[in-house]
Amino acid sequence: MTVLATGTRLAGLKARFAPLFADIAQGAAERDRTGELPYQAVADLAAAGFGAVRVPESHGGAGATLPELFELFVDLAAADSNIAQALRAHFAFVEDRLVAAEGPGRDKWLARFAAGELVGNSWTEVGTVKVGDVITKVTPDGEGGFKINGTKYYSTGSIFADWLDTYAERTDTGKRVIAAVNRHQPGVELADDWDGFGQRTTGTGTSTFTDAVVAEEDLVDFDTRFKYQTAFYQQVLLAVLAGSAKAAERDFAAELKARKRTFSHAAANVAAEDPQLLQVIGEVSAASFAAAATVQRVSAALQGAYETALALHTGQASAEEDEAANDAAELASAQAQVVLTPLVLNAITHAFDALAASATSVSKNLDRHWRNARTAGNHNPWVFKARLIGDLAVNGTELPRVWSIGASK
């Protein structure tokens, strides 16, 4: 039977991280306003073991299930959606190591996670690279190691990380690999040059590698990477959306409760008692509930893919069952994305209807919830997912589980 979010363990994890999430929430609006990167907040999370919640207890982690992890992710995103997204690559890399074959290499990574080391992202090539091409290269150095050269963009969270999960191509074999590059070395440069109007403090930007060193043991054939990776990456963004809705409910409700002014033609003398305004907050709350519930459904599908991957290793599941579990996870994440993107964006827009012109004050920075949700929603455009879901429903065409971005010509 699939183990989901068990009450006792989840309650313990929520209680463990709630004070830290509360501290993070206190500074979120100001960080967004000033562009200050949350170095200390991310370091505090790592020190508290948040990056190792999926690591088995036998290896120093909390042993959380995927539903438990994403319950925490929604809470973290409600505190600061930037930090939740900044940890996206870390938890994907953790997941890949969890389903890897047991052995010293896997144990070494689990120990690193338990020690608080974090992993950032470095996948997308810079410039008009053709779809499918990989310009970043890993080359043997003639001494048993490798050197990596190339430039990446959208390197979310890398500036806070100890390792960079880097998509590259080996020059000796032509194979596509994930190179785990130690960022604390010469030859690795990270820039916070993302200029989006939302998710401003995710530490996203350009990663440049100039003869940076990579150990052979830290090269992973891309074809062996965990199969539900795209669904997992999307699920982090879904949790960001759900957390943004939860944060909007919290902040707009607080603003309405504290509001002293009203209108001569309002339905009540006190804004916090106005039935029309209370209805708006109620509708936002309902959207937040639906978003969180949708995330839970996707978590269950991901947990199924994870458990089937482990069962495949031990001969307790067939290849066909493994493919079916991964297809189910991909479909769930795609369906959720199509639903949640407009749901959350519309809910946050509607939240402003509960307040007046003062809600648009830069000092309140309430618009950050919409900007962050809009930015998260622009990753992996949902319009393509909707078409693919329709093609599956009508024609039985399988959804792609791996895709890339680049120039069309």
Automatic annotation (TrEMBL):
Gene3D superfamilies linked: Acyl-CoA dehydrogenase/oxidase, N-terminal domain, Butyryl-CoA Dehydrogenase, subunit A, domain 2, Butyryl-CoA Dehydrogenase, subunit A, domain 3
InterPro entries associated with the record: Acyl-CoA_Oxase/DH_mid-dom_sf, AcylCo_DH-like_C, AcylCoA_DH/ox_N, AcylCoA_DH/ox_N_sf, AcylCoA_DH/oxidase_NM_dom_sf
Pfam families reported in the protein's UniProt record: Acyl-CoA_dh_N
Domain called Acyl-CoA dehydrogenase/oxidase N-terminal: residue spans: 23-117
Coiled-coil regions, chain positions: none
Protein name: Acyl-CoA dehydrogenase/oxidase N-terminal domain-containing protein
Organism, as annotated: Glutamicibacter nicotianae
Organism ancestry: Bacteria, Bacillati, Actinomycetota, Actinomycetes, Micrococcales
